[in-house]
Amino acid sequence: MATSISATGFKGGFGTSFNGSWGTSIVGEDYAMLVRSVPSHVSVAKPVKSPPMMKNVNEGKGLFAPIVVITRQVVGKKRFNQLRGKAIALHSQVITEFCKSIGADAKQRQGLIRLAKKNGERLGFLA
Asked: Is the predicted pLDDT of residue 57 greater than 80, yes or no?
């Protein structure tokens, strides 16, 4: 049993004729054609992700950033990171010795180290 719908005359409204009911099920040839048109297995591919780009958010910011960027390009990234790590460790030791000399506790020392890092970011040393 096939359902037919027709629409005529768009200017004066829709004149429609509808043969069948909304509850009519699809049987026979229509059902077989529908089953053949629907794939039996649908695969969904995972979206391709690009690898995360590790970029410094402080690149180009601060007074000393251009010097830091050029130095990194000249000496190489690995050697540059080694030198930077040594400089940071040395600066932390100086802060620790200063805190010992004035009698500051560990919490105050940690606050000074965080302040030094924040100032280093502003000046461009961490570019």
From this structure: no
